[in-house]
């Protein structure tokens, strides 16, 4: 059961999703480019963008999952926590825990705040409930 202050992302409910204006057009272009290759994922991402609050870079809250941020999330079924960095596809690298925004997990995490609870469908068709525990901006390398 979720606490009152948590945001629940389900197919029927769109939580507060916040997107950095600086990356919006790039993410839209990626989603539109993927419409022929992976229409379900592309449409899901475009749908998230339609419902998102767009903010200027200097107004982006630090507790929001954005490209380049580390995010720690917990699988509510197993209790396991994992930290990944959300990345553009060219920078994605599972071995370095860099998850592409063009993956089901990347789409699910994009724009969520700490405390948000969301459902994620795994590649093997299982539905998992995950909670965003912590978001940390990563300094430029």
What tags apply to this protein structure?
single chain; 141 residues; alpha/beta; six-stranded mixed sheet; two-stranded parallel ribbon; 3 helices; 23% helix; disordered N terminus
The H/E string reads: EEHHEEEEHEE
Quaternary assembly: single chain
Low-confidence stretches: 1-14
Strand order of the largest sheet: 1-7-8-4-5-6
Give the overall silhouette. globular
Largest sheet: 6 strands, mixed
Instruction: Give the strand tally.
Output: 8
The mean pLDDT is 86
Which percent bin holds the helix content? Answer: 10-25%
Content-based structural category: alpha/beta
Distance between the termini: 39 Å
In angstroms, what is the radius of gyration? 14 Å
- SS element count, helices: 3
Walkthrough of the structure:
The chain has 141 residues and is an alpha/beta fold. Helices cover 23% and strands 29% of the residues. It has 3 helices and 8 strands; from the N terminus they run ββααββββαββ. The protein has helices at 21-33, 39-51, 104-109; strands at residues 8-9, 18-20, 53-55, 69-75, 81-87, 98-100, 117-121, 127-137. Strands 1-7-8-4-5-6 form a 6-stranded mixed sheet. It has a two-stranded parallel sheet with strand order 2-3. The longest helix is centred in the first third of the chain and has 13 residues, at 21-33. The protein is globular. Residues 1-14 have low confidence and may be disordered.
Compact overview of the structure:
Helix content is 23%, strand content 29%.
Task: Chart the SSEs and their pairings.
Blueprint: E1 8-9, E2 18-20, H1 21-33, H2 39-51, E3 53-55, E4 69-75, E5 81-87, E6 98-100, H3 104-109, E7 117-121, E8 127-137
